From TrEMBL:
Species of provenance: Winogradskyella poriferorum
Swiss-Prot/TrEMBL keywords: Membrane, Repeat, TPR repeat, Transmembrane, Transmembrane helix
Family: Belongs to the Tom70 family.
Extent of the TPR repeats: 34-67
The keyword tRNA-binding is assigned to this record: no
Keyword Lipid metabolism: no
PROSITE patterns for this protein: TPR
Subcellular localization(s) per the UniProt record: Membrane
Name of the protein: Tetratricopeptide repeat protein
Subcellular location, principal: membrane
């Protein structure tokens, strides 16, 4: 089971404020309605007002509303307020009834990561992946980050293998390859970094930045001639872009970085 909580960006905060006021008026007419407090609590949650959301969820509970969704909202509100003890208490209640609840497992993993308990966090992120009917790239990224943070050989190996598992299951996802490359660069396994960066180039529609990243890796390898070729390819791909794209601030900054790197290599 995986809960999807409403995303705050889906509604403008002004609209949320109006909706909160409307539900507040309904509560004044029906002060014993647990459902109305739950409804307003969800709106407060979307509004990032976790103190008020927690108050409303607790009151709806006192009025007799019992639901897993409400328990999860209470846990999430506590998490955002950094009340990790209370958050864990609600998560464990959910897990007692549904030990494979992916959302609850993920939130517990988040808490352990925040507290620096990386191995516990990593194992829970692994469970999230195993128990999810549908997996997403970010789940593999969370697990990889936690395993890598354990800062030991086994953790780093697991960090990489879980990214590869994600690619095998989901297909060629650039963010997963990017994380692989970043990890390999960090441990100075430049040959592996180059291998996967070439894969990024292969699958990318826009290749100019991927070639520049390849050049950066090759420079760290000391393979300056190869880096020069990668810079040339980066510039070629940049010049193929429409003028309106090349003229954006972001791309002008990129080209400035490219030219600087080109000069550094020549010197």
């Amino acid at each position: 089971m995986f809960f999807v909580l409403s995303n705050p960006v889906l509604n403008a905060h002004g609209d949320l404020h109006k909706r909160i006021l409307n539900v507040t008026e309904e509560i004044q007419k029906n002060p014993d309605s647990a459902n109305l407090y739950f409804k307003r609590g969800k709106l407060y949650y979307q509004h990032n007002n976790y103190t008020n959301s927690l108050k409303d969820f607790k009151y709806s509970k006192e009025l007799g509303l019992e639901s897993v969704a409400q328990d999860f909202y209470i846990a999430k509100s506590n998490y955002h307020l950094e009340n990790y003890f209370d958050c864990k208490k609600n998560i464990k209640k959910i897990l007692r009834e549904d030990s494979n609840n992916s959302s609850a497992l993920k939130l517990l993993a988040d808490i352990y990561f925040k507290k620096g308990k990386y191995k516990k966090s990593a194992k829970l992120y692994d469970e999230v992946i195993r128990n999810s009917e549908v997996t997403y790239p970010e789940q593999y990224l969370y697990a990889s980050k936690a395993w890598y943070a354990t800062n030991n050989k086994r953790g780093r190996e697991r960090s990489q293998s879980i990214l590869i598992e994600g690619i095998e299951k989901l297909g060629d996802i650039v963010v997963l390859y990017d994380k692989l490359v970043s990890n390999y660069v960090d441990i100075k396994d430049f040959n592996s970094a180059v291998k996967f960066q070439n894969k990024v180039i292969q699958i990318s529609n826009r290749k100019e930045r991927a070639y520049l990243e390849l050049a950066n890796i090759q420079i760290q390898q000391g393979k300056l001639k190869e880096a020069e070729l990668s810079i040339i390819k980066a510039e070629e791909n940049y010049k193929k872009l429409p003028y309106r794209i090349r003229n954006t601030i972001f791309m002008r900054e990129f080209y400035s970085e490219l030219k600087t790197k080109k000069i550094e290599l020549k010197n």
